[in-house]
Every structure is written in structure tokens, then in C-alpha cells.
Design a protein that fits this description.
There is one protein chain. The protein is mainly alpha-helical. The chain is 70% helix and 0% strand. The protein has helices at 9-21, 25-38, 43-55, 59-72, 77-89, 93-99. Helix 2 packs antiparallel against helix 3. The longest helix has 14 residues, at 25-38.
């Protein structure tokens, strides 16, 4: 799909997901980056990239992506859930409770 339509942001997001499943984190991040370059308001790409950053111990970048996803779409439950889980992984249980709730900013 990317060869036939190199501007298809969803194709980059989907390929990033496949790379992520196979453990190719750098390639996944590169595809999520490209997706975001093509469509800066595509919330799911920020969430996916945040998940990948979390797996490679780039915790601040993961948190930035979850916060950006929430900023772009305050109704995207997945972003709140992932941000809350992120805080749990970091041992910030007080922030985790607030971090997964809509309308709150830890």
C-alpha cells in the first residue's frame, strides 16, 4: 500500500504496528513518525508510538505522546488508560489514579 500511495498515513501506522508486533521497535517508531508527519492530528499514531517508546525505556517520550493524544482528542479513552498504566509502571501510583481520568492532568 505504501508503494502505491506513499502519502497514506494509515498505511504507515499499520506497518508500524506490524513492526512493533515483531519486535522491530526502531522501524515501528520510524513509521509512526512518518504517519504523524503526514497527519499531525492522528491520535492513534501518538498512542502507538508512546507504547513503543515505553517498551524501549524512553519513558518521557511515551508520556509526551500520551499527553499529545489526549490534547488532540480528549475523548480517546485509550490515551488516558495508557497514560495511567505508564504511571503505574513508573511507580507513580498517585499520578496513575489521576492520569487515567478524563479531564485531569497529573
Amino acid at each position: 500500500m505504501i508503494k502505491t500511495n506513499p502519502l497514506d498515513y494509515r498505511a504507515f501506522n499499520n506497518r508500524g504496528n506490524e513492526y512493533e508486533k515483531r519486535g522491530h521497535h526502531d522501524l515501528a517508531i520510524a513509521d509512526y513518525n512518518r504517519c504523524i508527519e503526514l497527519r499531525t492530528d492522528f491520535t492513534l499514531a501518538y498512542i502507538n508510538r508512546g507504547n513503543t517508546y515505553q517498551k524501549v525505556d524512553r519513558y518521557n517520550m511515551a508520556l509526551e505522546d500520551y499527553n499529545r493524544a489526549i490534547e488532540l482528542n480528549p475523548n480517546k479513552d485509550m490515551a488516558y488508560n495508557n497514560r495511567g498504566f505508564h504511571y503505574i509502571l513508573m511507580g507513580h501510583f498517585d499520578l496513575a489514579e489521576r492520569g487515567h481520568q478524563k479531564g485531569t492532568q497529573p
